[in-house]
Structures are given as C-alpha cells and as structure tokens.
Amino acid sequence: MSTDFLPGNQLTLLESGAEYFPALLAEIDSAQQEIHLETYIFEDDLTGQVVAAALANASRRGVAVRLLVDGFGARGFEVGLGADLVAAGVELLVYRPEMGRVMLRRHRLRRLHRKLSVFDGRVAFVGGINVIDDMNTPHQVPPRFDYAVRIEGPLVRRVHYALRHLWRLVRWSVLGRRPPPPVPLHLPNLKSGEVMAGFLIRDNLRHRHDIELAYLAAIDAAQHEVLIANAYFLPGFRFRSTLIRAAKRGVRVTLLLQGRIEYVLLHYASFSLYGLLLAAGVHIVEYRISFLHAKVAVIDGEWATVGSSNIDPFSLLLAREANIVVRDRGFATELQASLQQAMTQGGEEIDAAELARRPWYARVVSRIAYAAVRFLMGMTGYLRREFRGESPSHKRRR
Fold it and tell me: Domain range holding 91?
C-alpha cells in the first residue's frame, strides 16, 4: 500500500486548542450550506459549550449541520449538550452507543476515534483534538498538547467523502434502512497551494492497516531521522522491528511519549518496551510538563503525518482513525520545530541509567500491564499476530 498524494493543497498546522478552536469556530460561523463534524469526545465544558452554541446558531440560520460522536467517548452527550443541539435543528448521531460498562463484548472496543470536520466542502480539519478544553485534563495538569491541520484544496474532497460515507452507514444502522445520500454540493477542486498530501483512514474492512503501513514504509525509507510523538505507544512486533532496524542502520530515531500517567494500563505496558528500544539505539523522551495527546511524526524533514491514530493495538487494530500524510519540506520543518520546542521545554530523555534507577516494582507492574493488554485484546477477539510477537503475513498487507 502506498499513499495516494494529491498536489495543490494549502495546509495550516494548528498546535493545541489555543490555535485549533478559533480556526474551527471561524469556519462554523462562516459556513453557508453544510457542516460535517466527527469527534470522539464532545465535553460539556466551556469549550464544548462554545462550539455547541456556534453549531446551533449555524443550524438556525439554515446550514445543514451533521454531528457524529462516539458512544463511549461522548457518553451522556445525547441528554446534555446533544439535546440542545437537536432542539436547534442539528442532526445528531451516536456511533455505537454505550449500552453497559461492565460487559466486555467483542465489538465494544471498536470506537469512532476520528476528529474530522468539513465546511461547505471547501475547508477541512484533520487531527487529534477532541471538543474539550485544553485545561480540562486529568489531575488538573493543563494544558493538553496536541495538533490538527486545516486543509484547503483537492484533498478536502476525500475528507468530505469519508465523513458522508460513515454518516450514511451510521444512519442506516440506526434507522434500519439505507438513507438517501445528502444533497450533493458543487465542490471546488481548485488548487489552493503547493503541498502534496494524502488522507488515510483505518476501518475494519478495506483499510485495516493503511495508516500503519504508511508509517512503516516511511520509516523503512528513512535515511537520517525519525521523530514520532505519540500519546499511547504500544506497537506490535513489526512496528517495533522497523524502528529498531532504522536505528541500527544509523537513523536517529526519537520517540516523544507520554510521561504522565493518564491510563494506567497503557502507561505501564508502554514502559515494558523501553529496555528493548533503548538497547537498539532508539531515543526516548517523556513529555512531563503536561498531558501529551499528539499523534504525529516527521521523517527526514520531508514526510509528516498528523491525525488521530495512536500507535497501540486499540488504534491500529480496532478504532476508526484518520490521518493526513504530507510530503512537503516546509510543513515538515514547521512540525519538527514545534516538537523540538516541546521536548526542550517539557521533555526528559530516558537513558539506560535512568531506566535502571526506576524501582523494581515498576518493572513488574509494566510486565503485568503488557500481559493485561494482550489478555484484553484476546478476550475481545482481536489479538493479532503482530501483537503476540509474530510478523503479520503478507496477505494482510494487501
């Protein structure tokens, strides 16, 4: 699988909510025909209330507003802000409503983790930022650190199609019949800039491994530097092996990972890989000044990706995800500079000596956590060969 890059796009890198939400609100306020928005979390906090009010206002002035939220990430949204939006004329759907928190059903972990929006078919946003205030973080350690990209140009069509396609599928599942397609828009396909970019999704049908394979191809081709920032990092065998091969052939491989504990299981399971990666020459930097939520990478100062996909079994094997992949030196340089600043201001590099100083019980907990993740994936029927430590077959690669 190779990424299908389209030329002629204009991209704006947005760092965290301070840059993202003003840009998003500006597009909501200027939309004239249609707004499509997908998000995993839509929180009833100050930011969520402002975004909800803007969507309601757009609907009242005659804009077709379609909002899709995840049933787990946005639990309770339907009876809170969602009810107000429906009253204002917004079309609201919930992806896989959460029916019970105790039962561990096979499909429960298949979540909508994408963060996408399109306005009048002319501007799109792709990234990892939910509708939640950056200051609303676990243990009150703000602000959350993340990225999104504003897109103009031919690539908007692909994002728009992905949003509309999933909207119809969810409506079909809710109504029990295939709904008619939304009224078609006359979408511009005009060149807006000079950037080459592609749009990748992960689903449970034709695009199961597209995002992962794009990462692997870029890392395999790396000659100088691989810089990955990922909030929840627990790669399978093949991803780990690709990173290790790159480091051993002289590529500087740096991982910027979450240093604070948000989800205990994933945090300690990720820690179990540190020794293996450090021994191979991979550099690990923990982001400790606040909560890292980014899912981005820069390779050789030219290839870059920004999106919703973590490098863990939940994102790579279960959830619906979406990333933009960019081949442009200017964009990659901007993202790399932002990541370097984040590491300088809020990161701490972990070396073998630091790892050895950590208490013995932390290593024991990390092994237990890793085994627990494997058990969880196995119980839900999604324990793939790459997470058990075997390389996936070529048949899976398509």
Answer: 6-175
